[in-house]
Fold this sequence. Notes:
Layout: E1 4-5, E2 18-30, E3 41-47, E4 53-58, H1 66-69, E5 75-79, E6 82-85, E7 97-101, E8 106-109, H2 127-131, E9 152-164, E10 169-173, E11 176-186, E12 192-198, H3 199-211, E13 218-228, E14 236-239, E15 246-250
Parallel strand pairs: 1-2, 4-7, 12-14
Antiparallel strand pairs: 2-3, 2-5, 3-4, 5-8, 6-7, 9-11, 9-13, 10-11, 11-12, 13-14, 13-15
Amino acid sequence: xxxxxxxxxxxxxxxxxxxxxxxxxxxxxxxxxxxxxxxxxxxxxxxxxxxxxxxxxxxxxxxxxxxxxxxxxxxxxxxxxxxxxxxxxxxxxxxxxxxxxxxxxxxxxxxxxxxxxxxxxxxxxxxxxxxxxxxxxxxxxxxxxxxxxxxxxxxxxxxxxxxxxxxxxxxxxxxxxxxxxxxxxxxxxxxxxxxxxxxxxxxxxxxxxxxxxxxxxxxxxxxxxxxxxxxxxxxxxxxxxxxxxxxxxxx
Length: 251
């Protein structure tokens, strides 16, 4: 059977087998809180030359070499994958489908990519839209009763850090203990937003802030943040490396 080259916008379960040429925008490893360390998912967000994005997930520790092989901004050819509905609680892209590797799959590097695509792939959300929950309904809405959260979605933002706590807080998620750093952001209009930085990202960020002793404000770009409204105050965002969040910080 011939493997055809196609674009992300054309992907459907019926189209297999096919090959796509994409650039890796973000790549991360994810593990369920209650699962053993060996039970991991490797995940990516990729974009093709037309600018369309799709979420790629490698299930149950398959192809673990991908974590060290695939890097942000790398161009690759993906083959022998499954195309499945993008119907989980969190959707990292607006595409109705996502790519899944559950068994044998192939991937190789490519040296050409005919598109001017932002390396990080930011699609910025305004602070006012977060505060008012005026968010794209194609991005997921989820309900986590254990956290009393009634709205969650994945988005990118940029803002200025103007306030932060001097010490990390202890926090527990699904029975697993972690660290949290609350901080305050504001945009160019002065609209303020609380950001909860979780896990190793909290430790790294606080270390960086403490090392910049002569700076009292920072600019920050955040990717794959999740926003939620607990009904007790304005909506907030949180970031965690295990859900693919990224950040860049500038003095």
